[in-house]
Amino acid sequence: MMEERLILLKKMLLESDYLVILKGIGVSMECGCTSYRRSKYAYEIEEKYGRSPEEIFSAGFYNTRVREFFEFYKNDLISSLGEINDGLKTLKKLEDMGVLKMIITRDIFSLAHRAGCKNVIELHGSVYHNECPHCRRKYPLEYIRDSKGVPRCENCGTTIRPQIVLAGEMVNNALSTKAADEVSKADTLLLLGCDMSSVLAESFLRYFTGKRVILIHNREHYADSKADLVIHGKSMDILAQLAL
Ligand SMILES: [Zn+2]
Q1: Angle of CA points 54, 57, 59, to nearest 5°
Q2: Ligand 1 centroid to 152 CA: how many Å?
């Protein structure tokens, strides 16, 4: 049964003219990135800081308690950036083959970029992009990680802002528009590591007018049957098994 679905998946992917992927939280978790959705993690953070990770990872908290924010950020967020695995490398192959046109994701750890993919819309930004809001000087992740306390701009002393979307902030409008446009151009849409109830699907599925929706996720959901092909399992393992 699984074997048949893998063959069908490969066929659908390779037949598509314009494949767009909505890459969800499932991928990030499989790659070992920090995630609030792991209850054990959320509990540890609450124990350590007396606040939930959602509370700390917000614009309000950043603006009022920047020192604590960066303590959390450095010790408990960018401490697990995730590993680039064979599943992610399959995405790079699909892009090189001209099949995969765009990956749309809320991942802030740049997994797809790090796997070599070029066409990625990172709706929530990336921890690899950091900028001084005053003089616009850019800084690498290492600068933030290795700074003592709050990271400050070498030019002007202003607190450097990681270019990521915090809770309570809007996604860049141009990026959302571009993502919607890409979905509207797709003939095949792959929901990878997310399902029909995910924020990504809810935001962009409505723009899809193509032929096929494929869903690969490790959890079953009642709306799964809306997809043309559903494979339940670890998305990265499944992609790696395609052996492209
Ligand atoms: Zn500056």
Answers
A1: 115
A2: 8
